[in-house]
């Protein structure tokens, strides 16, 4: 049985899986417990409006004895955009990266990264890719470095606001 990874854009029917993975990622990386209804609404809004986000899903496609192809989702990432007046161009931010533990260290993130890197390089006005990573996440740091990314030298500060539920 031969397998290969195919990257596709997410569709509305992927909402629940992407929300589940976002919740798992937040717990694994930051020990944050997210509200599932809020995350499902957020994912749905991102999928519906590419100005908010673009989600990509890695599909592991197995050719079963040349007769049929079975595809299973094995990882995701989300892109958001940031305008840079300094460079007169747009950064694409890689966010909400998640690969279930059974599929890690098999090139899933690298395939997702190379896919969006090619999209970025082929798109006018895109000046680069960025992401943020937890300081203690050495495995992720090594993975990003192996793909040619470098520490940009910034620390992230935030002021989070309470929101009322819609």
TrEMBL record:
InterPro entries: Acyl_CoA_acyltransferase, GNAT_dom. PROSITE patterns: GNAT (PS51186). Gene3D superfamilies: 3.40.630.30. SUPFAM superfamilies: Acyl-CoA N-acyltransferases (Nat) (SSF55729). Pfam families: Acetyltransf_1. Transmembrane segments: none annotated. Residues 5-166 form the N-acetyltransferase domain. This is GNAT superfamily N-acetyltransferase.
């Amino acid at each position: 049985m031969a397998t290969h990874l195919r990257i596709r854009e997410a569709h509305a029917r992927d909402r629940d899986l992407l929300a589940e993975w976002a919740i798992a990622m937040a717990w694994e990386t930051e020990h944050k417990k997210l509200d599932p209804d809020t995350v499902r609404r957020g994912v749905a809004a991102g999928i519906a409006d590419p100005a908010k986000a673009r989600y990509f899903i890695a599909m592991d496609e197995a050719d079963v004895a040349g007769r049929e192809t079975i595809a299973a989702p094995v990882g995701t990432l989300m892109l958001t955009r940031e305008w840079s007046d300094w460079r007169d161009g747009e950064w694409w931010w890689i966010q909400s990266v998640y690969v279930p533990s059974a599929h890690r260290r098999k090139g899933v993130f690298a395939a997702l990264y190379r896919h969006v890197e090619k999209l970025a390089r082929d798109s006018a006005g895109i000046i680069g890719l960025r992401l943020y990573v937890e300081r203690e996440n050495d495995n992720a740091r090594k993975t990003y470095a192996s793909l040619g990314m470098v520490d940009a030298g910034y620390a992230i500060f935030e002021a989070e606001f309470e929101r009322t539920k819609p």
